Amino acid sequence: MINSFKNYLVEEEKTLYIVWGRMNPPTAGHEKLLDFLKSKAGNNPFRIYLTQSEDDKKNPIPFVQKVKFARKGFPQYARQIMMDKKLKTIFDAMVSFYNEGFKRVVIVAGSDRVREYDITLNKYNGQKARHGFYNFERISVLNAGNRDPESKGVEGVSGTKLRGYAESGDFTKFAQYMPKKLSNSEAKQVYNAVRQGLGLKEQKEFKNHVQLKPVSQIRESYVDGKLFDVGDTVVIKETGEVASVKHLGTNYVIVEKSGNQYRKWLDAVEQVEQPRVEYEVFNEKLNENIYYDVADFSVSKDSIIISNEDVSEAGMQKFKNFEAADTHKTKDGRTAKKGLWYNIHQKRKRGEKPAKPGDKDYPKTLDIEQTMDQTRAAISREKEVEGRRDAADKKRHDSMLDRARMRRTRMVNRSTK
């Protein structure tokens, strides 16, 4: 059917609806904007134009690549997403619309751009300028709604927020605000395009960091160096025997008792609290009693001699220095001896590298092979004793059964006589 002249007149009277935006990168929030554009356009034509600016701050994705991402993310509007490199500014677009014969233009924009577009575009309407000339009957700007930056949903999404996620390497949050039509692999392409535009390396591994809850408070304290030190006296809970810690493993300790060494889990032993003895000394100079906690010193009670000088201020400082020399305060406020883990943590704080075998300060390590052999031998002895006990129990049980059978047989014989 051939269009009549009347149809051409109706075509000329139609209003063009457009969106002019950065979309760097395209987000789920932009899809709501395009849906709003289509609903307002009705039977009128509508078009979507993306800006062509490129920089490493607000416009990391190149124009052509950005158009491709937008068409993939919003396939229902792929034909309306234009790629005309000649239209570098919105004024170039207005001149092009006028030359096409449109009489009215409606721009759909966010609340932060409504006033700017309304004033600037109407200012040059009918005015010849560097960008060219356009003269529309009416230029309108529609407010697509306010965006709430504090909102956690689509209403709060913005290109700035997503560029921040890409810069910090948080793909999980970045992907949450991508258009729904984009696959996971396509979302990764957009993510890496943003990173490359920001001058960052492409990310190839996408692993979510999961913060797990502590499995055991004992284990956490042990790792922090608060639980045991080599040389500590401990009690084996199962037997109540006292032993000494000889080696600190990953989640176990090796203790020594009566010349034999045993491997025990962290919760199988507990530290023996040393008795705390306080000595009261009257300081005539300060006219007050001073208490000295002997448990904090690595000397016996008999070796502490308190002279007249010692009860002076200088003497008190000597005790404090002596106390600090061999002990330290743990994170939970407990006073403990300086052991292996203390030295390791101090080296880490100073930024020193750990000592290597052969170095002067390399600690004397435990002969694990010898320890394992002793452990195996102990386990073998325990199994042997257990086997003998089982054999004795079985023999005793069999004897009981034999006696029961004999008794029953005698009773049956008596009853048949």
Distance between the termini: 125 Å
Helix content: 25-40%
Share of residues in strands: 15-25%
What gross morphology would you assign?
elongated
CATH C-level class of the domain at 5-197: Alpha Beta
How are strands sequenced across the largest beta sheet? 8-7-6-5-9
CATH homologous superfamily placement of the domain at 5-197:
HUPs
Tally of alpha and pi helices: 12
Succession of helices and strands: HEHEHHEHEHHHHEEEEEEEHEEHH
CATH architecture of the domain at 5-197: 3-Layer(aba) Sandwich
Oligomeric status of the shown chains?
A: single chain
Q: What's the rounded overall pLDDT mean?
A: 80
- Poorly predicted runs of 5 or more residues: 276-311
What structural class do you assign from the helix and strand content? alpha/beta
Which secondary structure elements does this structure contain, and how are they paired or packed?
Layout: H1 5-13, E1 15-21, H2 28-41, E2 46-50, H3 63-73, H4 90-100, E3 104-109, H5 114-123, E4 138-143, H6 159-168, H7 171-176, H8 184-197, H9 217-223, E5 233-236, E6 242-248, E7 252-257, E8 260-265, E9 269-271, E10 278-283, E11 288-293, H10 313-326, E12 327-329, E13 335-337, H11 340-350, H12 368-416
Parallel strand pairs: 1-2, 1-3, 3-4
Antiparallel strand pairs: 5-6, 5-9, 6-7, 7-8, 10-11, 12-13
